[in-house]
Amino acid sequence: MSENSEGDEGAGDGGRPDERPRLSTRQAAERLGVKPETVYAYVSRGLLSSRRSAGGRGSTFDAAEIDSLAAAARRPAATAREAAPDAMSVRTGITLIEPDGCWFRGVDARELAAARGFEEAADWLWTGRLTPGLRFTASPPLLGAARAAAEALPGHCAPTDRLRAAVVAAAAADPLRFDLAEDAVIARARGLLPVLVGALPLRGDDPGPEAPLVRALWSRLTGRRPSEAFARTLERAMVLLLDHDLAASTLAARVAASARAHPYAVVSAALGALDAPLHGAAGAGAHRMLAEAVERGSAAAVVAGTLRAGRRVPGLGHRVYPGEDPRATALFAWLEEVPRCAPALEAARAVAATAGRPANIDLALAVLTLGAGMGPEASEAVFAVARTAGWIAHALEEYGERPLRLRPSGHYTGPRPPVAVP
After folding, report:
1. Cα–Cα nearest to 21, from 58, 56, 55, 67
2. Which residue has the higher pLDDT, 89 or 215?
3. Which pTM value belongs to this model?
4. How far is 345 from 290, CA to CA, in rounded Å?
């Protein structure tokens, strides 16, 4: 995301004689026919470059660059790739992201989360059809194989380590995994999600095989019993996390699907990309930070200590949202209905205010996991299970495209041959 101020002072149509004309944020927005917030969203996506204006207040933009982007947007066949030729662009009808929200197949993700359960929303994302009261069930042979693989790992392993082992074991136990017909892939997906959850060690009361997926996941992340408000908020969070366009893990999933990998392999590839400090693991840092802030009673001290150590404050800022992550805004509002989350929620808001940067979904999810008595790695497990549904949706879409289309060409920068054998 862009961290530039939205002020317009100090900008103009000129500058030093050797510079091209520059525009203020407001002038750039007027030429593009968009809101000022959208201009900064273009910067965060690499479609525009910006520069601090004189005096450090506000930003300025190259007038020629603005005009080029505006012309590309006016062309009927214009695409994101034409506007930014160095960026990879993939056609998708799953998720639209704008500065003020994200939409799944045209439906506001926040409204979907408030209205539908996770399994209903996931299946709708795959099929375009709503089945009220839908429950996913695991195949006993696949669940047994996944549990055996996950339980064989060392005790210190994180939940996502067990999820990766579980998906590989489930694939090996499924002789029909290579069937890429749409109905077959959806059937695999409906069984895979409860297999992943069931492979995690039980920490609380077993809700039974007929329980909703979210209740089963809860019992594997904390020993506390959930209130109705708590369980509902976790489910809403998981719906918000279903998809978020071409995040690193989703791109990995689509590349695998482009090569016609089966659904388990697609999810395995995505889980590999998710296991990264700048992607799925970001929530653990936010959880630990909030726990320290609650314990010390001072968000300012924790923020100062983090910055002094040369680290970024986790859970803040997002490259596609110029302001607060709208998913975080929604989740914060729902967390207000959960009394146990009050201390963590207060700490999260104090952290964002102290650091002067808006919260993202990782910080909101950390409030939920901390309030529920879950460990720091729980948010990554919640993210992985929820996003598995999105990876399957992208796989289904990619299976309908030309095979191996996601095969970019490398730009060789090494020595020109012939080079002597070393």
Report:
1. 67
2. 215
3. 0.80
4. 9
